[in-house]
Amino acid sequence: MPAVASLPPPAPAPAVARRSRRFSPPSASLRRAASGGGSSWRSERRLMSELERTVTAGATERVIRDYVGTKSERAALAALSRLLMDSDPLAVPFYEAVTQARWFKWISIHAAAVSALLETNGGAEESRSLVADSAARLESAAEVALFYCDLMAAFSSRGLKRRAMDFYAQLRAMPPPLAGGAKTYMAMIKSLCLMGLAAEAEEALREMVALGYQPDAFQFGLVAKCYGKAGQLAEMERVITSMSDAGIRMGTGAANIVLSCYSACRDHGKMLKWLKKMRKMRVMPTTKAYNFVLNSCPTVVSMARELGPSLPLSSAQLMKKLKSGSPWPAEAEVLQELLSASSVLDKAMVWSETEVKLNLHGYSITSAYVLMLQWVDAVKGGRALPLEVSVVCGVGKHSDVRGEPKVRELAQEVLSRMGSPLRLSARNKGRLVAKRDRVKQWLSTEWASPVHDENTDQSPNENDQQPFLPKLFRKLGQFFSSFVSVSR
Q1: What's the CA gap between 198 and 194, in Å, rounded?
Q2: Burial code of 177-197, b = ≥16 C-beta within 10 A, e = fewer?
Q3: Percent of the chain at pLDDT exceeding 90
Q4: Which of 73, 145, 183, 360 is 20 to 30 A removed from 330 (C-alpha atoms)?
């Protein structure tokens, strides 16, 4: 086995890290991983339960070592990665146990992350010892250079920018050109961008080109995004232009980066210009672009969140309302340009012989609202409908917001106001479904956004109660379905 794999276990975790284990939830990251499912979620859930019952550092370490010793390499490394990602103090003893496993192989990114975590928790001495031991046992200058890049990223992500700059200085002190060639430069550019050092990253990009290495669109995109996040849009545009000058074709990744920066600044004029440029270059908007653009349209965002009584129920009504009432003149034009491209709807919609399905996974509330309006227009387009029509909106498992799944709630509300026959499936609470005949009957009718009239008599009557009853039955159905699932 090469010397890289013979790294001895790092020094024990500092007292600061040990003391914090008992007073903070020790396995919050594992809890999130367990709730998200996956092949090892049951074993991780059991690990979480055992760790929560431990009251001493010794007991915690025994549980961890038992887990690492009995589980596969893949499961143990997955748990370690999650702990490191969340800067959980338990990552340090977990890494100690991993280094003693029979299958252990030294991994640069893990060692760098543990070093940064040790320093964050007050173990500067142990951190420096781990860094020195790791660098001393690496076989080549190229491996050392890549390790410095990982250290830069790990320390800067935890707010230790001064230490990250120390590693950058050590990397630059190595004889030029940097060992490892293009691979080292790519890693260095990525780390510099994570540190927010756009000018330094661009300089490394120029140096890479001068040495005869060919960067790809990803490196240009990283530098452009770094400038964009800092609000330096002129520099971002310059880097994107230089990518084209270098003969690299504009891809969806770089296009999304530009859109994300314009949307963060809510610059609808530049966003519109960029969307038109994408159309000319035949770079179609993606799901990310759809989310970026629509989340930066305040009027549409407000409509989708508030679900007011005058909510537009068609894309034509939405455009009309934006043109007449939006305080941002370019907002309607941006939406029109986005709707003219069918790439996002084509990806989200499946139209087969057996069903036509709209999949709303990965879309924000605002995007889901607009996409549903597009989808209804497509379904009304005259094509022969298959046996079943459905909208898949999920149950909020991957949402950061607790409570009622927001996308599902939006889908139910909008479809209910349209008079749609789609209802929650009894077998899948994240899917609205209806048969072809009922959908055809629905599509043959006309619906419009209800107009709120303050002078109208508010006394209860049959017409006033109709919108309320479907909503009431839906809420009752959700309550009883959740009650049955909990009882099981």
Answers
A1: 9
A2: ebbbebebbbbbbbbbbbbeb
A3: 46
A4: 360
Task: Report residue 136 as tokens.
Answer: 């001393």
DSSP bridge partners of 434: 389
Quote the tokens at residue 419. Answer: 């008079």
Query: How far is residue 271's CA from residue 267's CA, in Å, rounded to a whole number?
Result: 6
- How many helices (H) and strands (E) are present in the chain, helices listed first? 26, 5
Please say whether the beta carbons of 162 and 153 come within 8 A.
no
Predicted confidence at residue 245, as pLDDT, reads 81
Question: What is the C-alpha to C-alpha distance for residues 43 and 71, in angstroms, rounded to an integer?
Answer: 9
Residue with tokens 């030294």: 106
Axis crossing angle, helix 233-245 with helix 252-265, rounded to the nearest 10? 170
CA distances from 89 to 65, 128, 134 (A): 15, 17, 21
Residue 126: CA count within 13 A, CB half-sphere: 23
H or E element, residue 424: strand 423-424
pLDDT for res 411 = 93
DSSP code of 459? Answer: S
The set of long-range contacts for 395-403, using a CB threshold of 8 Å and a minimum separation of 24, is: 395/429, 395/430, 397/35, 397/36, 397/37, 398/36
Q: Is the pLDDT of residue 66 over 50?
A: yes
Closest by alpha carbon to 345, among 327, 364, 314, 368?
368
Q: How many residues in total does the chain contain?
A: 488
**How much is the average pLDDT of 37-46?**
60
**Count of CB atoms situated within 10 Å of the CB of 201:** 25
Residue 22 clears pLDDT 90, i.e. is over it: no
C-alpha 380 chain-centroid distance: 33
Helix, coil or strand: residue 75 = helix
Share of the chain above pLDDT 70, in %: 80
Work out the angle at residue 408's Cα, subtended by the Cα atoms of residues 449 and 388, and round it to the nearest 5 degrees.
Answer: 85
The pLDDT score that the predictor gives to residue 39 is 46
Between 359 and 56, the more confident residue is 359
Looking at this protein, which amino acid is placed at residue 321?
K
Going 233 to 238 to 239 to 240, the CA torsion angle's sign is positive
In 279-354, which ranges are E strands? 349-351
Q: Backbone phi, then psi, for 391, in 5-degree steps? A: -125, 120
Q: Which amino acid is at 84?
A: L
pLDDT of 448? 54
